[in-house]
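Suppose a colleague, Dr. K., hands you the sequence of a protein chain of 270 amino acids and asks what its three-dimensional shape might be. Before reaching for any lab equipment, you can write down a predicted structure in token form. Begin with the sequence itself:
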Amino acid sequence: MPHPFEQTTTWNQLKQGIIDLAKQEVLSRFEKVSAQTKDDGSLLTEADTQMQIKTAEFLMQNWPQFAFLGEESSLEEQQAAMESEQGCWILDPVDGTSNFACGIPFYSVSLALIIQGELVAGMVYDPSRNEMFAARKGFGAELNDQKLKADTAKTALKQCSGIVDFKRLKAPLSTNLAQFPPYSSQRSFGSVALDWCWIAAGRGQIYLHGAQNIWDYAAGWLILEEAGGKSSTLDGEVVVVPKVIKRSALAATTPELFAEWQTHLQSASK
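The predicted structure, expressed as tokens, is then:
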């Protein structure tokens, strides 16, 4: 389905709007706010709430045809937005709030657009590095307006750096990976959206996460997909589903590395 962001000028307007809001509402509060704990145990800061409010206003003023789903919205509001026939924005106002609240400069703003169950546009902005990762379906991925292609000189799993979130993996798999790591090194940075983008940029070659929400992965998934990377759930399904449910994800920069990584995980899960 055609959407307004197939036009470069409109696309640039959206990207610049998110950059400006992130600098104003998120970066300006870095190391200056306290966090409160939500019912699910995650953290919430003034930056989360204000970025969501201001972004929703910006999107409604310019593209009122699309519904809005924010991480800080109620479950009822999220589900209603996802069911919109016209399309739905998906926003994580601060992905990596724990890092943000602790003064660790690894967090991001993630925004995606889904129409009739298909992700058509996504962007992940890293205020600390002033890096804008973005993608439109069929147009490729970009980093600060330069073409982004997932690639690596590392051709074997044992050579790779893995971005792995152990916290949400089932015990047999996490124990196996810890005791018998198949990669050369492993990292866990704390922002799902940026993790996907860093794989797309080749800053890690393989990725694994046990349970992420659609606002965590939507934009990053599209960016990696358009950059030429490959992903699936641990069950071999497509990661993206137009529902407010958690999904596992494994990914790699190349189809060859993905196949080796997936085969290893299937064996290690037994």
